[in-house]
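Data availability (excerpt). The following record was deposited with the supplementary files.
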Amino acid sequence: MAHLPEVHTKQSAADLAGAAMAQMADGLYVTDRAGLLVYMNGAGERMLGWTADELRGQSVHAAIHYQHADGSAFAEIDCALARLGAGQAPIRVADDALICRDGTILPVACSAAPLQRGAGPGEVVVVFRDTTEERAERAFAQREIDARSMATRTREALADGRMLLYAQQIVPLTGGKPALELLLRMLGPDGELISPAEFLPGAEQSGLIAEIDRWVVHEAMALCAGGRRIDANLSDDSVSSPELLAVIRDGLAQTGADPADLIFEITESALERDTATGLRFVNSLTELGCGIALDDFGTGFGSFTYLTPMPVRYLKIDVDFVVDLLEQPANQRLVKAIVDRARSFDQQTIAEGVEDEETLELLREFGVDFAQGFHIGRPAPRELVLT
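Predicted structure:
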């Protein structure tokens, strides 16, 4: 049997090590004693978008390690990788970041150690892996834990009477009855005020939202019984709840509230979820004599399609179209279009987010029927607003 030349049957240890590093799934780079790059493997190149040739001879910290994962500056003097020297123990960093060629930040976990053999004095090898998915999984798990914890706190607040209602004025611009929109808040066990954005997601996941909606509805009907027009928000889940319809029907009979003064705000997203169910719910409320306001109007792709089948009394123009109305001609055209279309369906409009007199006057000029916002009145505990 013929023998192959020795050069094809044997490789040096250095060649084998180089081949192994090139095939690694994790990124790897080597720096000299000055922190300048002398080697990067293929995985590192693919992950960062740089080639080894582009970075060779450059300061690794200055080129790809100058920011933390949150984007804040990372000084080289504070960098343990840059300070690692011969004779020191290896280090591991669970949450680090490297900067890709396109400027994006790659979250990584990395380990680094001085090279002891076959290397120049002071050389350091750093191995890193992409932790994007791990961080996303950790963040998701933490959100789940936080939601469950907040749901427990919300359940306790309901039991302890620590749910609060704030109110914000809605004033007529073209005639009509002023109103108050009820806005939910929660008191923590130490008296801290907790916004709905913090506790409602957990309440929705845990099923507590139905109980919260029932409480809000009872409070709204009690205020209506005093002769006020009240706007109350309903969660998306309640739009398909026959139980809530029964609560409203019974509550109106018991309190003697005028259903015409009770306006329920529902979002476009609730209708988009199941249009047929939403239509039945809205029709049922209308048969009771209650009014319907379509909240955040203009943000959904099918906004105008809801005007034809839905017996909606009010369209609430989304705050994003109002806050910069003076500077945005496109928003002015949209608001005018909403007003014109609403009138053609015998509906009225409410503009949210009014923060100055100039915007208020422009809305009046456009024919908007009602307005609310900080310029008119900030949300405050209902007891203060009612006095």
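Summary of structural features: Residues 5 and 245 are 89 Å apart (CA to CA).
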